[in-house]
Amino acid sequence: MGIDLKAGGKVKKTKRTAPKSDDIYIKLLVKLYRFLVRRTGSRFNAVLLKRLFMSKINKPPLTKLQCLLEPYVRSKGRKFERARGRRNSRGFRV
């Protein structure tokens, strides 16, 4: 048994495929990143292109992309291993 859909079928989710802004510099960036997405398999370029289409209210910053930043612990390596035991600079002598 299926479900009865009204005429037109399911409502598809829409997303922007072009910026609404008339700013020529944003349009130039869109051209560049469309080319880069097509030619390279980089996820960074795809995410940045998607963010260029977003409205000003919903747009996250373009600079810090989480796909580029490594998780905090992995990027720090074994820094936490060295912090075991008592601190040498504890402010008083015994």
UniProtKB/TrEMBL annotation:
<feature type="domain" description="Large ribosomal subunit protein uL15/eL18">
    <location>
        <begin position="70"/>
        <end position="94"/>
    </location>
</feature>
<protein>
    <submittedName>
        <fullName>DH200=94 genomic scaffold, scaffold_12416</fullName>
    </submittedName>
</protein>
<dbReference type="InterPro" id="IPR000039">
    <property type="entry name" value="Ribosomal_eL18"/>
</dbReference>
<dbReference type="GO" id="GO:0006412">
    <property type="term" value="P:translation"/>
</dbReference>
<dbReference type="GO" id="GO:0003723">
    <property type="term" value="F:RNA binding"/>
</dbReference>
<keyword id="KW-0689">Ribosomal protein</keyword>
<feature type="domain" description="Large ribosomal subunit protein uL15/eL18">
    <location>
        <begin position="2"/>
        <end position="63"/>
    </location>
</feature>
<dbReference type="InterPro" id="IPR021131">
    <property type="entry name" value="Ribosomal_uL15/eL18"/>
</dbReference>
<keyword id="KW-0687">Ribonucleoprotein</keyword>
<dbReference type="Pfam" id="PF17135">
    <property type="entry name" value="Ribosomal_L18"/>
</dbReference>
<dbReference type="GO" id="GO:0003735">
    <property type="term" value="F:structural constituent of ribosome"/>
</dbReference>
<dbReference type="GO" id="GO:0022625">
    <property type="term" value="C:cytosolic large ribosomal subunit"/>
</dbReference>
